[in-house]
Specification:
five-stranded mixed beta sheet; mainly beta; 3 helices; 10 strands; single chain; globular
């Protein structure tokens, strides 16, 4: 079984609750707007980190991050980008098992055909009406993905 921590839109804030929730994961995916290299360094001290650049990530450190990436998991390929509206490929044709994105600060889980679309929400600053959240993606021995949204704080 593989356990993947999925976080996005930290905007320079890495909460103790988020660090606690990510303990024991096999890898972490950050879907952009980390807010600085210190966040990424701290996350990479928990587990291997796969991050992309968000629309609010600027500077030399940010430009070293890809705008999108493919991560190989036990369930297959996961495509990661910040803003879903910038999806420039057909996930089904590319044999993608899941699309991970952020940007909206609203957690969501949906399926388009057999492809999982997961937004962990924002784990950063509180925005009115939006929860502070992240996700854990469990992959079982049969390659089945089960996403869990974890609310750290109500908006």
């Amino acid at each position: 079984m593989q356990k993947i921590g999925i976080i996005s839109d930290t905007h320079g804030t890495l909460r103790t609750e988020a660090i606690d929730a990510l303990q024991g994961v096999d890898m972490i995916i950050h879907a952009g707007d980390s807010g600085g290299p210190a966040i990424l360094e701290e996350l990479s001290s928990i587990a291997p980190l796969y991050a992309v650049r968000g629309n609010c990530d600027f500077g030399q450190w940010a430009y070293s991050l890809p705008a999108d990436r493919v991560v190989e998991t036990e369930a297959g390929l996961i495509y990661v980008l910040h803003d879903l509206h910038r999806l420039g490929l057909d996930p089904s044709a590319a044999e993608i098992a899941a699309v991970i994105h952020g940007h909206t600060h609203m957690p969501s889980v949906s399926y388009r055909g057999n492809i999982l679309y997961l937004n962990p929400g924002s784990a950063g600053p509180v925005r009115a009406g939006r929860p502070v959240s992240l996700s854990i993606l469990d992959i079982d021995d049969d390659r089945k993905m089960t996403p869990r949204l974890i609310t750290l704080q109500d908006g």
